[in-house]
């Protein structure tokens, strides 16, 4: 399976308690959906089965099979949880998974701004990161085909282009 076949659906953000529970931030549109895809993988090939899950304020507290204590749970902090693309629902026309945009050129008003290198979320919404560090809110994406077309507010790039 190639990395392109694996889609991130959650990330372990820390340990919870002393019995090995972990806090997982969901990356899915329907937050609880990540628990329904079956075993989840990490980029290094480890497999995680969710035995129990309960919602918390902005994350889920989960029991993972094989994780028995806080030390094991803390060691997993930052682990991205991936699922095979074929387990995800088929999207309607005009919708896309953010991971599908990685490596695509981004254009605004016919000008190429750079290539998508990843996504960030600091709490106010998803940001598309371009090579060189430029961040563009995902809400500015207008269309996606062979490249990503964004509709930026007037003056958005002025500060980014200033020396």
* Record field, number of beta strands: 13
Question: Helix count?
Answer: 2
Task: Please tell me the CATH architecture of the largest domain by its name.
Answer: Beta Barrel
CATH topology of the largest domain: Elongation Factor Tu (Ef-tu), domain 3
Q: Give the proportion of residues in helices.
A: under 10%
Query: Which segments are poorly predicted (pLDDT under 50) over 5 or more consecutive residues?
Result: none
Q: Which outline best applies?
A: elongated
Strand content is: 35-45%
Report the CATH superfamily of the largest domain.
RimM
Mean pLDDT: 90
What is the H-and-E element order?
EEEEEEHEEEEEEEH
Domain count, please report it. Answer: 2
Largest sheet: 6 strands, mixed
Helix/strand/pairing class, anyone?
A: mainly beta
Rg:
18 Å
CATH class value of the largest domain: Mainly Beta
- In spatial order, strands of the major sheet run 11-10-9-8-13-12
Distance between termini?
Answer: 43 Å
């Amino acid at each position: 399976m190639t990395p392109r076949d694996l889609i991130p659906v959650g990330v372990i953000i820390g340990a919870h308690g002393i019995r090995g529970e972990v806090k997982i931030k969901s990356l899915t549109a329907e937050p609880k959906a990540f628990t329904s895809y079956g075993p989840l993988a990490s980029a290094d090939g480890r497999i995680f089965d969710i035995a129990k899950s309960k919602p918390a304020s902005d994350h889920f507290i989960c029991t993972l099979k094989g994780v028995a204590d806080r030390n094991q749970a803390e060691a997993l902090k930052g682990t991205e949880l991936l699922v095979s693309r074929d387990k995800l629902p088929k999207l309607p026309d005009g919708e896309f998974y953010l991971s599908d945009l990685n490596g695509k050129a981004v254009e605004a008003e016919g000008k190429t701004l750079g290539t998508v290198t990843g996504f960030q979320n600091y709490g106010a919404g998803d940001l598309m990161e371009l090579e060189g560090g430029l961040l563009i809110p995902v809400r500015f994406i207008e269309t996606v085909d062979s490249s990503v077309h964004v509709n930026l507010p007037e003056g958005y790039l002025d500060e980014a282009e200033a020396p």
